[in-house]
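User: I'm putting together notes for a lab meeting next week and I want to include a structural view of one of the chains we've been expressing. I don't have a solved structure, so I'd like a prediction I can at least talk through. The sequence is below, exactly as it appears in our construct file.
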Amino acid sequence: MYEVGVVAQFEAAHRLVGDFGLATRLHGHTYRLEAIVRGTQLHENGVLFDITKLQAALDRLIGKLHYQNLNDVPELHGVNTTVESMAHFCWEQLAPTLRGQGLTTLRVQIWENERAWAARQDEL
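Assistant: Thanks for the context. Below is the predicted structure for the 124-residue chain, given as C-alpha cells.
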C-alpha cells in the first residue's frame, strides 16, 4: 500500500450548538487540514497520485472556508460544525474529485488546534 498526502491551513470562526460550554460563543481556529490518499499501484511514472492535483483540490476546498464563519457557509447550513463534522464535510467535498483515479482510500484529518483533531477515512 502506498500513500501520499498534502496539508493546508485556514482561519475560520464558528459556534457550536449544544452542551459545549464557551464553545457555544463565536470563536475562531487556525485549522490544519490534511488529505491522505492510499492505493496499491503506482502509475508508470512512479507516482500513486499527482501531489499537485491533490494540493489543488485541497486549495479549492480551503477557498470555501478561509476567513469564513463556518455557520454561514451554505454547504454547512444546519450542521453543528464540530471538528468531527468538519472532517466529514471535507471528506465529502474531496472524494468526488479523487474517485476513478486508481486510489483506494481517502483520509481527511482536521486539527482545530495543536492538540485536538478528528479524522474521517473511507474507501473511494
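A couple of points you could mention at the meeting. Residues 83-98 form the longest helix (16 residues). The longest strand covers residues 2-14.

User: Perfect, that's what I needed.
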